[in-house]
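tmp note - Polyphosphate polymerase domain-containing protein
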Amino acid sequence: MPRHTLRLRTQGMATISLDQLNTDADLLTRIDRKYLIPLPDAQALISTLAPHGRVLQIGRLQAFSYASTYFDTPDLSTYMLSARKRRRSFKVRTRTYLDSDLCFLEVKTQGSREATVKTRLPYSSVDCDRITDDGRAFVTERLSASSILPPHQAAQVAQMLTPVILTHYDRITMHLPGDGARVTVDAYLTWRDIDGRGPGTRAASIGDLIVVETKNPATPSLADRFLWSQGHRPARISKYATGMALLHPGLPANKWHRTLTHELADSRPSTYQARHAA
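out:
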């Protein structure tokens, strides 16, 4: 089990397998809310949800390590769509489940009603830092099918995608059957710049803050209501876009200004020479 997330206790919560979770709470189309909260508040949330939820368990593990590589075009068109609050936006990433070596290429799109749709393609972890020919075809099809871009532009964007930023974090995933919702609790989120936009490799960490994300079919879940009762409100944070804004202060970032200057005010990036990067 990842050593950091041992600080978050899930003992006593009923468990759910990955197959059950994917069957009962696939939620590839959902309403997402994200919160940045201190570690003790995350534990209080887990304890509150324990009688009502089920925690994902694979083997003996209930906490898992993830790595995601995000891709963008040379002019950062994906980032700019989000930063400029366009009604339709998208992200392309690979997600690697480090405890099992599973990997997927994922395309996340957001339509005019703020519903997030995630589609994914089984992928080799060897290719986690690049888009293969099959991957480009998948990205093209998803962007055009989602009406984000017309087919010819979708193909052009897919052809230009290159790796930009890498994230690591530890995650606990819970299912709330009564709400038909998922809740994820992410600890020790770190970002590393991999697009070569500076003299060294820039990296940053969220420190002891926890990212809680609720993924609901429509109405707010028990998790949302508990967090609201404790004074927490949804925060503007995107693992990709907020990380890019943090590592590259010159990018337009008004959308995440409060998050960057309040919750993440202490998350100053450090610069390492590329030969010393992990």
